[in-house]
Amino acid sequence: MDPNRFSGKVALVTGAGRGIGAAIAERLSAEGARVAVMDLDEAAVAAQVKLLNERDPSAGAVGLVADVRDRAAVDRELRRLEDAAGPCQVVVNNAGRWTVKPFLESTPELWADELAVNFSGVLHVVHRALPAMVDAGYGRIVNVISDSARVGEPNVTLYAAAKAAVAGFSRALAKEVGRSGVTVNCVSLSTTRTPGAFATFDESQIERMVRFYPAGRLGEPEDAAAAVAYLASDDAAWVTGQTLGVNGGYAMS
Protein backbone atom coordinates (compact mmCIF):
# COMPACT_ATOMS: atom_id res chain seq x y z
CA MET A 1 0.00 0.00 0.00
CA ASP A 2 1.38 3.38 -1.06
CA PRO A 3 0.29 6.27 1.21
CA ASN A 4 0.95 8.72 -1.61
CA ARG A 5 -0.62 6.83 -4.49
CA PHE A 6 -3.61 9.20 -4.68
CA SER A 7 -2.00 12.27 -3.15
CA GLY A 8 -3.69 15.44 -4.35
CA LYS A 9 -6.70 13.59 -5.78
CA VAL A 10 -10.34 13.82 -4.78
CA ALA A 11 -12.20 10.50 -4.88
CA LEU A 12 -15.96 10.08 -4.70
CA VAL A 13 -17.29 6.70 -3.53
CA THR A 14 -21.04 6.07 -3.62
CA GLY A 15 -22.72 3.65 -1.27
CA ALA A 16 -19.76 4.18 1.04
CA GLY A 17 -21.54 4.11 4.38
CA ARG A 18 -20.84 0.43 4.99
CA GLY A 19 -19.65 -2.82 3.46
CA ILE A 20 -17.74 -2.76 0.20
CA GLY A 21 -18.14 0.99 -0.29
CA ALA A 22 -16.72 1.71 3.16
CA ALA A 23 -13.74 -0.55 2.46
CA ILE A 24 -13.09 1.23 -0.84
CA ALA A 25 -13.27 4.62 0.87
CA GLU A 26 -10.85 3.44 3.55
CA ARG A 27 -8.36 2.06 1.01
CA LEU A 28 -8.35 5.19 -1.14
CA SER A 29 -8.02 7.40 1.93
CA ALA A 30 -5.14 5.27 3.27
CA GLU A 31 -3.40 5.77 -0.08
CA GLY A 32 -3.66 9.53 0.07
CA ALA A 33 -6.94 10.48 -1.59
CA ARG A 34 -9.28 13.05 -0.16
CA VAL A 35 -12.40 10.89 -0.08
CA ALA A 36 -16.00 11.97 -0.42
CA VAL A 37 -18.25 9.41 1.25
CA MET A 38 -21.69 9.41 -0.42
CA ASP A 39 -24.62 7.42 0.93
CA LEU A 40 -28.32 7.95 1.57
CA ASP A 41 -27.84 6.99 5.24
CA GLU A 42 -26.79 10.19 6.96
CA ALA A 43 -25.69 8.47 10.18
CA ALA A 44 -23.54 5.98 8.26
CA VAL A 45 -21.93 8.82 6.30
CA ALA A 46 -21.10 10.71 9.48
CA ALA A 47 -19.62 7.61 11.11
CA GLN A 48 -17.48 6.76 8.11
CA VAL A 49 -16.17 10.31 7.72
CA LYS A 50 -15.33 10.39 11.41
CA LEU A 51 -13.45 7.10 11.10
CA LEU A 52 -11.38 8.28 8.11
CA ASN A 53 -10.50 11.60 9.70
CA GLU A 54 -9.63 10.03 13.06
CA ARG A 55 -7.32 7.54 11.37
CA ASP A 56 -5.56 10.37 9.57
CA PRO A 57 -6.21 13.93 10.78
CA SER A 58 -5.01 15.22 7.40
CA ALA A 59 -7.42 13.00 5.41
CA GLY A 60 -10.00 15.75 4.89
CA ALA A 61 -12.79 13.26 4.21
CA VAL A 62 -16.10 14.83 3.21
CA GLY A 63 -19.58 13.45 3.81
CA LEU A 64 -22.27 13.65 1.12
CA VAL A 65 -25.84 12.54 1.76
CA ALA A 66 -27.73 11.66 -1.41
CA ASP A 67 -29.81 8.96 -3.00
CA VAL A 68 -28.19 8.27 -6.37
CA ARG A 69 -31.67 7.90 -7.88
CA ASP A 70 -32.22 11.61 -7.25
CA ARG A 71 -30.32 13.70 -9.79
CA ALA A 72 -31.04 16.95 -7.97
CA ALA A 73 -29.55 15.54 -4.77
CA VAL A 74 -26.48 14.28 -6.64
CA ASP A 75 -26.00 17.72 -8.21
CA ARG A 76 -26.39 19.45 -4.85
CA GLU A 77 -23.91 17.24 -3.03
CA LEU A 78 -21.29 17.37 -5.79
CA ARG A 79 -21.48 21.16 -5.73
CA ARG A 80 -20.79 20.95 -2.00
CA LEU A 81 -17.83 18.69 -2.65
CA GLU A 82 -16.43 20.98 -5.33
CA ASP A 83 -16.74 23.97 -2.99
CA ALA A 84 -14.94 22.08 -0.22
CA ALA A 85 -12.29 20.13 -2.13
CA GLY A 86 -12.52 20.73 -5.87
CA PRO A 87 -13.71 18.42 -8.64
CA CYS A 88 -13.29 14.64 -8.53
CA GLN A 89 -10.44 12.92 -10.28
CA VAL A 90 -11.74 9.49 -9.22
CA VAL A 91 -15.35 8.30 -9.16
CA VAL A 92 -16.31 4.89 -7.82
CA ASN A 93 -19.93 3.89 -8.40
CA ASN A 94 -20.61 1.29 -5.75
CA ALA A 95 -24.14 2.14 -4.57
CA GLY A 96 -26.62 -0.62 -5.31
CA ARG A 97 -29.07 -3.10 -3.94
CA TRP A 98 -30.84 -6.28 -4.98
CA THR A 99 -34.23 -7.85 -4.45
CA VAL A 100 -34.32 -11.65 -4.30
CA LYS A 101 -37.50 -12.69 -6.08
CA PRO A 102 -38.46 -14.75 -9.14
CA PHE A 103 -38.96 -12.53 -12.16
CA LEU A 104 -42.61 -13.59 -12.58
CA GLU A 105 -43.33 -12.36 -9.05
CA SER A 106 -41.86 -8.93 -9.77
CA THR A 107 -43.74 -5.83 -10.89
CA PRO A 108 -43.03 -2.94 -13.25
CA GLU A 109 -42.67 -0.73 -10.18
CA LEU A 110 -39.92 -2.99 -8.84
CA TRP A 111 -38.23 -3.07 -12.27
CA ALA A 112 -38.11 0.72 -12.34
CA ASP A 113 -36.71 0.98 -8.83
CA GLU A 114 -34.00 -1.67 -9.28
CA LEU A 115 -32.88 -0.06 -12.55
CA ALA A 116 -32.94 3.38 -10.94
CA VAL A 117 -30.66 2.35 -8.08
CA ASN A 118 -28.27 0.12 -9.97
CA PHE A 119 -28.10 1.76 -13.40
CA SER A 120 -29.62 5.23 -13.50
CA GLY A 121 -27.72 6.14 -10.34
CA VAL A 122 -24.47 5.46 -12.17
CA LEU A 123 -25.60 7.65 -15.05
CA HIS A 124 -26.50 10.51 -12.71
CA VAL A 125 -23.13 10.49 -10.96
CA VAL A 126 -21.02 10.07 -14.09
CA HIS A 127 -22.96 12.64 -16.11
CA ARG A 128 -22.40 15.18 -13.32
CA ALA A 129 -18.72 14.41 -12.59
CA LEU A 130 -17.41 13.66 -16.08
CA PRO A 131 -17.27 17.18 -17.61
CA ALA A 132 -14.62 18.33 -15.10
CA MET A 133 -12.55 15.23 -15.85
CA VAL A 134 -12.72 15.83 -19.59
CA ASP A 135 -11.80 19.50 -19.10
CA ALA A 136 -8.83 18.51 -16.92
CA GLY A 137 -7.69 15.77 -19.30
CA TYR A 138 -7.66 13.21 -16.49
CA GLY A 139 -10.11 10.95 -14.72
CA ARG A 140 -10.74 7.48 -13.38
CA ILE A 141 -14.22 5.97 -13.28
CA VAL A 142 -14.65 2.55 -11.67
CA ASN A 143 -18.08 0.91 -11.64
CA VAL A 144 -18.80 -1.98 -9.30
CA ILE A 145 -20.90 -4.67 -11.00
CA SER A 146 -21.80 -8.28 -10.26
CA ASP A 147 -21.01 -11.69 -11.67
CA SER A 148 -24.77 -12.20 -11.76
CA ALA A 149 -24.62 -9.98 -14.84
CA ARG A 150 -21.91 -12.10 -16.46
CA VAL A 151 -22.99 -15.67 -15.73
CA GLY A 152 -26.61 -15.25 -14.66
CA GLU A 153 -28.14 -15.97 -11.27
CA PRO A 154 -31.76 -16.96 -10.62
CA ASN A 155 -34.04 -14.71 -8.57
CA VAL A 156 -31.90 -11.59 -9.04
CA THR A 157 -32.82 -11.01 -12.67
CA LEU A 158 -33.45 -7.29 -12.27
CA TYR A 159 -30.16 -6.72 -10.46
CA ALA A 160 -28.31 -8.78 -13.08
CA ALA A 161 -29.92 -6.81 -15.90
CA ALA A 162 -29.01 -3.47 -14.34
CA LYS A 163 -25.40 -4.49 -13.71
CA ALA A 164 -25.10 -5.78 -17.28
CA ALA A 165 -26.29 -2.37 -18.44
CA VAL A 166 -23.57 -0.71 -16.35
CA ALA A 167 -20.96 -2.94 -17.98
CA GLY A 168 -22.15 -2.04 -21.48
CA PHE A 169 -22.31 1.63 -20.61
CA SER A 170 -18.77 1.48 -19.22
CA ARG A 171 -17.33 -0.05 -22.39
CA ALA A 172 -19.08 2.45 -24.64
CA LEU A 173 -18.13 5.44 -22.49
CA ALA A 174 -14.51 4.27 -22.36
CA LYS A 175 -14.38 4.63 -26.15
CA GLU A 176 -16.00 8.07 -26.03
CA VAL A 177 -13.68 9.63 -23.47
CA GLY A 178 -10.44 7.69 -23.80
CA ARG A 179 -8.69 10.44 -25.75
CA SER A 180 -9.64 12.88 -23.00
CA GLY A 181 -7.46 11.04 -20.49
CA VAL A 182 -10.41 9.41 -18.72
CA THR A 183 -10.54 5.65 -18.15
CA VAL A 184 -13.71 3.71 -17.40
CA ASN A 185 -13.59 0.19 -15.98
CA CYS A 186 -15.64 -2.26 -13.95
CA VAL A 187 -14.92 -4.51 -11.01
CA SER A 188 -17.19 -7.55 -11.05
CA LEU A 189 -17.84 -9.21 -7.69
CA SER A 190 -19.37 -12.45 -6.50
CA THR A 191 -20.61 -13.15 -2.99
CA THR A 192 -18.76 -10.95 -0.55
CA ARG A 193 -19.10 -11.04 3.21
CA THR A 194 -20.98 -7.80 3.80
CA PRO A 195 -24.01 -6.71 5.84
CA GLY A 196 -26.06 -6.96 2.64
CA ALA A 197 -25.03 -10.55 2.07
CA PHE A 198 -25.85 -11.51 5.66
CA ALA A 199 -29.23 -9.79 5.34
CA THR A 200 -29.98 -11.97 2.28
CA PHE A 201 -28.50 -15.32 3.32
CA ASP A 202 -28.05 -17.00 6.65
CA GLU A 203 -24.63 -18.15 7.83
CA SER A 204 -25.20 -21.77 6.78
CA GLN A 205 -26.19 -20.75 3.26
CA ILE A 206 -23.14 -18.54 2.95
CA GLU A 207 -20.85 -21.30 4.12
CA ARG A 208 -22.34 -23.74 1.58
CA MET A 209 -21.58 -21.27 -1.20
CA VAL A 210 -17.86 -21.69 -0.60
CA ARG A 211 -17.78 -24.94 -2.57
CA PHE A 212 -18.42 -22.98 -5.78
CA TYR A 213 -15.27 -20.88 -5.30
CA PRO A 214 -11.93 -22.34 -6.44
CA ALA A 215 -10.11 -20.02 -4.04
CA GLY A 216 -11.86 -21.76 -1.15
CA ARG A 217 -13.49 -18.74 0.43
CA LEU A 218 -15.95 -15.95 -0.20
CA GLY A 219 -14.87 -12.40 -0.84
CA GLU A 220 -14.04 -9.78 1.74
CA PRO A 221 -14.71 -6.06 1.17
CA GLU A 222 -10.96 -5.46 1.17
CA ASP A 223 -10.62 -7.70 -1.91
CA ALA A 224 -12.87 -5.37 -3.86
CA ALA A 225 -11.13 -2.30 -2.46
CA ALA A 226 -7.72 -3.47 -3.65
CA ALA A 227 -9.00 -4.00 -7.20
CA VAL A 228 -10.72 -0.62 -7.27
CA ALA A 229 -7.55 1.08 -6.02
CA TYR A 230 -5.59 -0.47 -8.88
CA LEU A 231 -8.04 0.62 -11.57
CA ALA A 232 -8.30 4.10 -10.03
CA SER A 233 -4.54 4.54 -10.00
CA ASP A 234 -1.99 5.59 -12.59
CA ASP A 235 -0.78 1.97 -12.63
CA ALA A 236 -3.89 1.30 -14.74
CA ALA A 237 -3.42 4.25 -17.10
CA TRP A 238 -3.53 1.92 -20.14
CA VAL A 239 -6.51 -0.09 -18.90
CA THR A 240 -9.95 1.06 -20.03
CA GLY A 241 -13.22 -0.51 -21.05
CA GLN A 242 -12.37 -3.63 -19.05
CA THR A 243 -14.11 -5.74 -16.44
CA LEU A 244 -11.88 -7.16 -13.71
CA GLY A 245 -13.40 -10.21 -12.02
CA VAL A 246 -12.72 -10.27 -8.28
CA ASN A 247 -14.51 -13.42 -7.30
CA GLY A 248 -12.24 -16.22 -6.10
CA GLY A 249 -12.61 -17.92 -9.47
CA TYR A 250 -16.42 -18.18 -9.37
CA ALA A 251 -16.63 -16.77 -12.91
CA MET A 252 -13.72 -16.94 -15.30
CA SER A 253 -13.13 -15.22 -18.63
Short structural description:
The protein is an alpha/beta fold. It has helices at 19-30, 42-55, 71-85, 108-136, 148-151, 157-177, 195-200, 203-209, 221-232, and strands spanning 10-14, 34-39, 62-65, 90-93, 139-146, 182-189, 243-246.
Number of helices: 9
Classified in CATH, the superfamily is NAD(P)-binding Rossmann-like Domain
* CATH-derived architecture: 3-Layer(aba) Sandwich
Domain count, please report it: 1
**How is the main sheet built?**
7 strands, parallel
Explain what this protein looks like in three dimensions.
With 253 residues, the protein is α/β, with parallel strands linked by helices. It has a single domain, classed as NAD(P)-binding Rossmann-like Domain (Rossmann fold), CATH 3.40.50. The protein has 9 helices and 7 strands, in the order βαβαβαβαβααβαααβ. The protein has a 7-stranded parallel sheet, sandwiched between helices. Strand 2, helix 2 and strand 3 form a beta-alpha-beta unit. Helix 4 runs parallel beside helix 6. It starts with 9 loop residues before the first strand and ends in a 7-residue tail after the last strand.
Q: What tags apply to this protein structure?
A:
9 helices; single chain; alpha/beta; Rossmann fold; 7-stranded parallel beta sheet; 253 residues
